Amino acid sequence: MKPNKECKVIISEIIAEIDQNSVLFKDPSIENGKMGLAIFYFFCQKFFDDDKYQKKAEEMIEDSIGLLTEISLSEIFSPKYRGDSLSNIISSFGKGLMFVQYQLNKSYDFTEYYDIINNILCKLTKSSLKDQDFDFFSGALSSGHYFLNNFYHTKNEFSREMLLVIVKSLKKYAISHSDNQVYWKSPFYGHQIYLGISHGSAMIINFLCKLFKIGLLTKDSHAELVLLEKAVNFVLDQKRNLSTGFFPNLYGADGEISSTQFSLCYGDLGVIYALNNASKILKTGNLSDNINYLTYKCLQRKNDIKFTFDATIFYGAAGIYCVCKDMYLKSGDNIYKKAYQYWYDQITTYRDPDYQAMAGFAESSIYDEDKNNESVKWSYGWGISGIGICLMSGLMPELPSISETLLIGI
Length: 410
What we know:
Elements: H1 4-21, H2 34-48, H3 52-73, H4 86-104, H5 111-130, H6 140-154, H7 157-173, E1 175-178, E2 181-183, H8 201-213, H9 222-237, H10 268-282, H11 285-298, H12 317-331, H13 334-347, H14 384-395
Antiparallel strand pairs: 1-2
């Protein structure tokens, strides 16, 4: 992995950028808001052992609370990007509070906020379920991941009930592709059928797997096990023999065979992550062997800017690092360790030391012209604060995993 000295210089440059541009953040979420900056500063506090960063983190939390109040009182919600929703922003804020309280500083107690968030998200979740929208960003699984985290950390009964409501709807609105396959459509995205972990079948497979993991579903949850197996069968049936993308982003994309993005948000990695989790629950020999093969081949992929666009968490090398490290921590298998170390080293290859801004990380071509989202370049999900957290994590292994704040979840 990269030498400590080089990465520490980059981290310091990222901090300077964040300090100068934190005023641009206008929402309280992790992914694109001040809660993400709060987590960033808490990591800085632990990494540098300097309490000045804790003060900055607490300021970001206070700012997030103020922004959440402002958004909640507004009669009109203005999305910053496609799929952005009030539900996602509020649930992200809540997940951030839990991550701070349970992973970063156990002296905090945000219980009063969880109760308020529960009530708001209850209404938004039921509205999403009525629309049959299960999306992580626009729909019920945005709040679903909040309720999952809340139940995991607090065993809150209200969250348990909401999770079961979501599961009931997943069963009700699953579309039969054949006798042993099901899928779900994405209403917000033109009713298309996605396969990935951000909008599609892998997202739902992963969510169901987490419910088994936390004990809300068990080996006696027969209907849910059948649902999980049928969803896995549908995804596996879409596999093609393409070295740059086993799984297309969409089902039935005009029969076109093309390479796909390789990142946390889109492409094989998220799909295979979800399938790995499912194989541990379904425990079918042939399934495990098939998924192990796909995993091995997937992790052999090397960095290519055509498929991994930048250094960030959502679309770049940092996100791949996070997923591979999560898989290593849960399995102890050195194949994942080798992969996460490789992708950690790739993060800084996107940096141009001569670029006089963004700590050398040139602006992503996707968000270059995004005038409606001026904070995105410094953000947790799409920007350099997330990159900084990952760089710190690689240098200090005792820092907590950020998995529960990401698409992959608890």
